[in-house]
Amino acid sequence: MADYEAVIGLETHIQLNTVSKIFCGCKTDSWQDPPNTNICPVCTGLPGALPALNQAVVEKAVLLAAAVHAEEIRPRSYFARKNYFYPDLPKGYQISQYDEPLARGGFFDLPLPGGQLRRVTIPKLHVEEDAGKTLHRGDRRLIDFNRCGVPLVEMVTGPDLRSADEVAQYLIRLRQLLRWLGISDADMERGQLRCDANVSIRLAGQDHLNPKTEIKNVNSITNVRDAVQAEIERQIREVEAGRPIETWTLDWDEERQALSKMRAKETESDYRYFREPDLLPIVLGSEWQARILQALPELPLERRRRFIEKYSLPDYDAEILTEERSLSEYFEQAVGSFSGEPKTVSNWLMNDVLRLIRERGTAAGVLQLTPGHLARIIEMVSSRQITASTGKDLLEQVETSGRAPEDLVKEQGLAQLSDEASLRELARGVLQSNPQQVDLYRGGKTTLLGWFVGQLMRETGGQADPQLARQVLQDLLEE
Ligand SMILES: [Zn+2]
Asked: Distance from the CA of 285 to the center of ligand 1, in angstroms?
């Protein structure tokens, strides 16, 4: 069989996490609400109702455009009507942007296994409103308008992805970026990040584009990967059998793990776009833009690279610590108030603190255990003031109580017994109450030393410095 390569472009719809919808004051987040409760004349398209643009939508979209390095964040962009008839679109059109979008000419670098980068181009990014939802219950169709007017960013990539795994990687990294910027919760299961994939194949080494199919309605990263993989394999089978690829729109059936044909693909002319007459253009003055961009943080990949260079962290650590923005900030703050090596902080964070975060279903940014507390606990362990296991218990205690670790140590007498004189005193007591074992040891059974250490540890409630305990006992037994 000939050697084929896949050519994939993605069209993503990102639900912005603004408080209110794009053109009215209704609540955006209806996840917990009954159907048709967050609606008004504007978002249900009643005659005479006029839309008014939500400024926060523009601000969040501009942040995303800057984060994907848009060449052009346009000082003036326009809304257009995209006309189509569908039961969950009460106006009969969607307010979108078309020929004059908010931003153009960006890219998103995707780290691939093996250290290479795949540059994914983003020719265009625009804002628009969402449509409602149709639910099928037996032979009835139920319509929920809560989602009408929810703000979306549509971001389209060039045909730059080359495999189903790269598609999955793109979505994982995009989700990370959206959460990092704080502009979307990006939960695919809740429809906050949606993805249609355009798939075609060609012989490896060629550079023209063949007819493509579009896969729609896939609601998890795993499903997108499976659907794209199935479609690549189907197209190869068709081409090998001498049949042409037709430009279908395909639907992924999760249960059957199979694609089915929905309809022949619409073309742009079916939508009869024209300029939205009820809205002014978005005028993005340079002052407003500058103010928005002040909130643009260092991006995940840059931060990851910096962590490797500045703190001498392994790739693996840097990747985990920059998976989520508040965790990466927590790490830097803890390193800033810690006197030892950054790698030590990284170990504690990746093992014990991350476990605590997961168990409690919280995020690094809202822990009661502050970065400063963590640094103090690690320092007390490193200087052998407390044992490592006391240190781990302290993480939990500080998180629960919000109190300073030093105070808890003092109050509960958790400090490790590392004062040699008092340890020697206790060790004498242990020898005196076990004369038989002392005789055995002195008669040559020196393996009993471990048993004596155990007795002394018990005597001190586990607080003795184990190395010092061993030394003191050995000295006394060999006196
Ligand atoms: Zn409304």
From this structure: 27
